[in-house]
Design a protein that fits this description.
The chain is an alpha/beta fold. 40% of the residues lie in helices and 11% in strands. The strands form 2 sheets. A 7-stranded mixed β-sheet has the order 1-7-6-5-4-2-3, with helices on both faces. The chain has a two-stranded antiparallel sheet with strand order 8-9. Pyridoxal-5'-phosphate binds next to helix 3 and helix 4.
Length: 371
């Protein structure tokens, strides 16, 4: 592929000199699970996020599942989830014994539609999972008010929003828990699977420490049934080094997003994502909407330009989640699924590469629109 959707090699070059000797040293010490490196990263990430506690876990999916268990989800409890997200946002609810209620998204931001969420609340609704998709934050004050009115726990899915803030709100500032992922391609990515939970509540933090390690405060004493979802020391060491670069890398993503916005401004047929407004969008993905998306996607790939679709099938139409599809209409998510197109974006993408993407897209759209 000439131009990939995500380039992780660039990031590794920025940190290789620091990370490689550390990893080699750690291999010789034999410390691989939890331990000092994990505690150090948890402290650093909590401080960076402005949230009191960070608990490292094995993946973003586990972070969501364990968060739902931590708030005491009971079998059959309903949890509101947006219909446009990665499958984990809804699968986690099923894995925790609950029922995902998949609601439509807003036409402008493609994030959870709060009116649709309010309309979906029933006597069984226990929690809501706003997903800060693409790196853009859900309207947090409005969401917090809705959750408070209805007595719902809020678990934020911030897997795509490391470092995003909106004025005096940020993930964790108003919610019970934040679940995040450090899958390699995320804005803060490990060298394998990893995740974390953030919370300001010390009772939930303590429960999470038990849940991630077989309910075990001391070796071979088990207070509750937990699981094995510990963070690896090697991943924590990588994450500590990369965390120091996160703001700089997010700034490069913002710069790249601004460049796409101007390059695509005059291109007929492209609907660019709305500007971030006062919030600090961290542009995990740069997702436009185009007509005849599948043909455009195929042609981009033929031209060696990596593009993606996030996501091609809304969650209520995924075979795995059909039992939870219900009757509600989700027209926005369904239409968006056939139009969304994610363009290459990552720290290290060059202006020339972005110009090539924009020019190719423009040529393809002119061709496909004139036919
Ligand atoms: C990546 C992602 C997850 C899951 O994280 P994993 O670490 O892959 O388990 C959950 N939600 C969203 C929105 C994601 O992008």
């Amino acid at each position: 592929m000439g131009l990939p959707l995500v380039d992780l090699a660039w990031q590794h070059r920025q940190v290789a000199a620091e990370i490689e000797p550390q990893l080699l040293h750690m291999m010789s010490t034999g410390r691989f699970v939890l331990g000092d490196e994990v505690e150090r990263f948890e402290e650093e990430y909590a401080r960076y996020c402005g949230v009191r506690h960070c608990i490292g876990v094995a993946s973003g999916t586990d972070a969501l599942v364990l968060s739902l268990r931590a708030v005491g989800l009971q079998p059959g409890d309903e949890v509101i989830v947006p219909a446009n997200s990665f499958v984990a946002s809804a699968a986690a609810v099923v894995l925790a014994g609950g029922v995902p209620v998949l609601v439509d998204v807003r036409d402008d931001t493609l994030l959870l539609d709060l009116d649709a969420a309010r309309a979906a609340i029933t006597a069984r609704t226990r929690a809501i999972i706003p997903v800060h998709l693409f790196g853009r934050l859900v309207d947090m004050p409005a969401l917090a008010a809705l959750a408070a009115d209805a007595g719902l726990a809020v678990i934020e899915d911030a897997a795509q929003a490391h470092g995003a803030r909106a004025g005096s709100y940020w993930p964790g500032s108003t919610s019970e828990l934040v679940a995040t992922s450090f899958y390699p391609a995320k804005n803060l990515g490990a060298y394998g699977d990893a995740g974390a939970v953030l919370t300001n509540r010390s009772d939930l933090a303590e429960r999470m420490l038990l849940l991630r390690d077989h309910g075990s405060p001391d070796k071979y004493h088990h207070e509750i049934v937990g699981t094995n979802s510990r963070l690896d020391a090697l991943q924590a060491a990588v994450l500590s080094v990369k965390l120091a670069h996160l703001d700089e890398w997010n700034a490069l993503r913002r710069e790249a997003a601004g460049r796409y916005a101007s390059l695509l401004a005059g291109v007929p047929g492209v609907a660019a994502p709305p500007p971030a407004g006062a919030a600090e969008h961290v542009w995990h993905l740069y997702t436009v909407r185009v007509p005849r998306r599948d043909r455009i996607l195929e042609a981009l790939r033929q031209a060696s330009i990596g593009a993606g679709v996030h996501y091609p099938v809304p969650l209520h139409l995924q075979p795995a989640l059909l039992p939870y599809a219900g009757e509600a209409a989700r027209p926005v998510a369904e239409r968006a699924a056939s139009e969304l197109l994610s363009l290459p974006i990552y720290p290290g993408i060059t202006p020339a590469q972005q110009e090539l993407v924009a020019a190719t897209l423009s040529r393809l759209l002119r061709g496909s629109l004139s036919r």
